[in-house]
Structures are given as C-alpha cells and as structure tokens.
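SAMPLE LOG
Freezer: B-3
Tube label: C17
Construct: single chain, 232 aa
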Amino acid sequence: MTGESLTISAKDGAFKAYVARPKAARGPAIVVIQEIFGVNAVVREVADRLAGEGYLAVAPDLFWRIEPGIDITDQSEAEWKRAFELYNAFDVETGVEDIAATLAAVRADPGCNGKVGAVGYCLGGLLAFLTATRTDSDATVSYYGVGIENHLGEAERLARPLMLHIAEEDGFVPKAAQARIIAALKDHRQVTLHTYPGRDHAFARPGGQNYDRADAELANQRTSDFFKANLA
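STRUCTURE (predicted):
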C-alpha cells in the first residue's frame, strides 16, 4: 500500500487526487469524497484504510477550482473559518462532475477490475448521495451528509445500492431534515439507512470534537460489509 498522486482531466482543467493502492495488483476501487477541510490527513487515512481492505482508493481534490491542495484540520478557529469559506465558495454541481470524472479515471486504471464505489463525509456525504443519483458508482456510502433533504427528488434515479449513516443529534442536519430524509428513503429498495442515537455531526472523524469510537467503528464495519457485498 503506497500513497501516490493521480491527475484527472475535467472539462475545464485538471486536478489531483490522492491514491492509495492495495497489495493486490487488481481489484475493486472506491472514491473517497472529502469533507470541507480538503484532502487532509483524515481523508488520506480513510483511503489508506480502504487500501488495507483491498481497494484501490482515490481521493480527488474537489476544491481545486478555488485553491488546489487544501489540507487543513478541524483543530483551530482559523481553520474552521477557512473551511466554511471554501464550503460557501464550492459549487456542488461541478463537484459531482469532478467525481464522475474521477470514477471514469479510476475505472480505466490498470489496478481496477471495473467495479468502483464511493464514500463521502459531511459535504462529501451530500456529494455521495448525488454521486449515487447522478453517476455510475456501483455502490455508495454517505456519512452525515449535509443538505440531502434538498435533493430528495433525485431519489427516483437511484439504480444502485446506497447506504446512509445519520447522526441523530447532528448540529448541521436538523431533526426535521432527518425526518424528511428517512421518510423519503426508508422504503427505497436501493437504500440502507442507519441512525446513531446521541451522536453529533462527524462522529466518525478521528480526533474531532464529536468523535465516538464505538459508533465510528460500527459505521465503518457496516460500510465495509456493504462494499464487500456490492463491489465483489
């Protein structure tokens, strides 16, 4: 397993992605969709963990149009301010297009067997939902996605498996929004929903204020099982 860089072409330029390769020469792949802190150590660690599970893991730099190479943490007020500036400047529509370009590039990689999934967190959780509705991702996982309730009309496009992890005390996803998401998706044949009582936003982010090891491990195991079932 080694970390490397991949350049991906978009319709209006090119951007970089962090790549973690598994020991196997060829296998399924997973696109890791960043939070509002860029492709930072947490995102790279997710990719590395997935590579350790046998996946070709690729984390695209989705903020490249604003500023390439953003790599900040959630540990200071200044970094949080910068993260929200990036969030507010980010265009979700082009972000999903970049993810689609990443999926295509990964499928063409000699290390990929043709099966490609995606997993996203926070902003990436919303992008994961839209990846599931708008792209050919074979299986997609969303962790505490922010703003999914505004895109529920797209659920009719879901043709492949989607798993959502919802934090019941999410400060960025109000209870009313959670209720709308659950009501719209709970009976969808492609959707698996998991809720986490007492958990706040980003409960699966190691080192974060709301990190909960037990539920993070539970969510990650559910994700691992989901990908094994759908990307084999």
